[in-house]
Amino acid sequence: MPESTRELLTLGGWKDLEFEPFRDEVTIHWIRPFEGDQPGVALLKYEAGAGVPRHRHEGLETILVLEGVQSDEAGDYGRGSYIVNAPGTEHSVWSDTGCVVLIQWDRPVTILEEEMA
């Protein structure tokens, strides 16, 4: 495991970073914002009960759960889970307990529903 990943997982290296609003009760820390054709890389922090409404992936999305549990219609993903969402797939995302994830998007997602069901 690369040292930077180990620090994020075991040392909570993300805890001292500044986060800004992203969606209701979800905050973001951009590691690398979208620029041209370059993917966006960020940390997302979900408060307990927070979520992101149904959306479509316009490019590949990869997620590493650093803390807590992130859920979608396919299941629950705990700390250390690695999730890949292919272009064209759709889902909603939430966290009953709160979580922090490292995420990379090839392209921004398209929100399909503004409110969680």
What can you tell me about this protein's structure?
By secondary structure, the protein is mainly beta. The chain has 1 helix and 11 strands, in the order H-E-E-E-E-E-E-E-E-E-E-E. It has one domain: Jelly Rolls (Sandwich), CATH 2.60.120.10. The strands form 3 sheets. It has a 6-stranded antiparallel beta sheet, with no helix packed on it. A 3-stranded antiparallel beta sheet has the order 9-4-11, with no helix packed on it. It is globular. The mean pLDDT is 88.
Task: Describe the SSE topology.
Layout: H1 3-10, E1 20-23, E2 26-32, E3 40-46, E4 50-56, E5 61-68, E6 70-72, E7 75-77, E8 82-85, E9 90-95, E10 99-105, E11 110-111
Antiparallel strand pairs: 1-2, 2-3, 3-10, 4-9, 4-11, 5-8, 5-10, 6-7
Tags for this model:
mainly beta, globular, hydrolase activity, 11 strands, RmlC_Cupin_sf, RmlC-like_jellyroll, 117 residues, single chain, ChrR-like_cupin_dom, three-stranded antiparallel beta sheet
Short description, anyone?
The protein is mainly beta and 117 residues long. The protein has one helix spanning 3-10, and strands at residues 20-23, 26-32, 40-46, 50-56, 61-68, 70-72, 75-77, 82-85, 90-95, 99-105, 110-111. It has one domain (3-91, 99-108): Jelly Rolls.
Helix content: under 10%
Largest sheet: number of strands, sense, barrel closure: 6 strands, antiparallel
Distance between the termini: 37 Å
Query: Radius of gyration over alpha carbons?
Result: 13 Å
Helix-and-strand structural type: mainly beta
Largest sheet: spatial strand order: 1-2-3-10-5-8
